[in-house]
Structure formats: C-alpha cells, structure tokens
Amino acid sequence: MALEALLLSRDPEVQKTMHRVLNDANIDVQVCSSAEDAMQILNRHKYDTFVVDCDDVPAAAMVLQQLRKGKSNKSCIAFAVVNGRTTVRQAFELGANFVLDKPVSTERAVRSIKAAQGLIMRERRRYHRHLVSASGVIIVDGGTELPVTILTISEGGVSIECARQLDTGSASRLKILLPGSKHPLDLRGTVIWSDTEGRAGIRFQLLTETTKKELDSWLEKRALSVDKGVMFINATVTRPVD
C-alpha cells in the first residue's frame, strides 16, 4: 500500500502545487475542501501525511488541532499552510510538523516534503506491521525451545503462532530469520496477549543496538517496496486478522 496524504484546501494553486509535489514523492493524494469533510475522512482512514490550509478554509485550524487528539491519525506528519492570520508559532502549537507560507512555491514544498520523508517512513514502520511468513524459535520456561511461525512484525513487536498457549506477561526470547536476511535476529520481549490456539503478541524489550539497526533496516526496505506487493495491517490491532 502506497503512502497516502489528505490535502484540505480550497485554493487551486495550493492544490496544484501540493498535488504535484506529493505525487512526485510517490505519495497518493486525496483532496477535500471543507473542515467537516476532512474530519469525517480522518475519522475513517489513517493517513501518512495531512496538509491543511489553515487560513483560507473555515475551521481548518481546528481540524489540525483535533488531529492530535484523535486515535488513528494523531501521529500523522502534518503540514500547515498559512496566509497571515495564523502565525508560524501558532501553527506549531496547533500540531503542525512543518509550516508553509502562501504563495507556496514548488521549491519550498519539495524541500519540506524531502525533509519530512524520514519522519513519514518512521511513523509507517512504527504503526504498521508487515505481514510475513517467517520461521524461528521462541525460548520459554527457562530454556524450552518451541518452533514458531512469524505472522506479523513491526518496530515494536511481533505476532506469532506456536504449538501451545503462552503465558501472558511472561518474558520470552525469539530467534527469527526474516525473508532476505542472512542470519537470525535475537530478540527479547514480553508476551502481551495469547490465545488457546497458540497465537501470541510479543512486545520487544531490551534490543541491542546492532539488532535494532538490523530490524530497522529490514523494515525500511519493506516499507519502501510499496510497488512489490508488500501489505500492511494496522499495528494497533493486537490480534492478527483471520
């Protein structure tokens, strides 16, 4: 699934410039022109980026403020477009990560999007789990090794399937070989949920610097491979989708 942006603006020039710049950055854009429509859309769908025309759309600044109080889009990377009424400081206080003054130049917009891309990809890795089919072992009960299948993985944890139910709250150690990796990752975590069918969710704890770098690198490569069929599910859903 490609990166996605919601653009709230009634200004044809803002729409034209931001639409072109975001598309060139491989970010799909949906445009809306009213604060009410934007709120409804944001309540239904998660976006990687939100661009809001604060001064020329009635109640648009309120949408930006409410964005940070919501659930699905509170960590979305937000751009505020201002036209004199909202100051740069006020835009940041409302929750903007970046601020653009009107008239928005293509060069300034390109620089801002490039500066934001690292944050956008980090948020995607953090809040989306990759569907994978990987194998490994989990070490429990002071040394017992159980074969496991890795169902999903994210920056913060994994969901797995094994031969028996794991104890919620117990510590665990995982050794998993991810697709394309040359050697297994050694991961430590805590079982945060489990069921009688042997499925469980494990939140990572105490990752070494080397392991964290290897995991981040693998996730980043997967997140960038949006044209190769990589799929995502929302990482806030604790159990895998059947």
Summarize it.
This protein has 242 residues and is of the alpha/beta class. 31% of the residues lie in helices and 33% in strands. Helix 1 crosses helix 5 (106-127) and helix 2 packs parallel to helix 3 (60-67).
- How many individual domains? 2
Q: Gap between N and C termini, in Å?
A: 19 Å
Report the major sheet.
Answer: 6 strands, antiparallel, barrel
User: What is the typical, i.e. mean, pLDDT?
Assistant: 84
- What is the annotated CATH architecture of the largest domain? Beta Barrel
**Element-by-element helix/strand order:** EHEHEHEHEHEEEEEEHE
- Share in β-strands: 25-35%
CATH superfamily of the largest domain: predicted glycosyltransferase like domains
What keyword list fits this structure?
242 residues; 33% strand; disordered C terminus; 12 strands; Rossmann fold; six-stranded antiparallel barrel; elongated; single chain; alpha/beta; Thrombin, subunit H; 6 helices; 31% helix; five-stranded parallel sheet
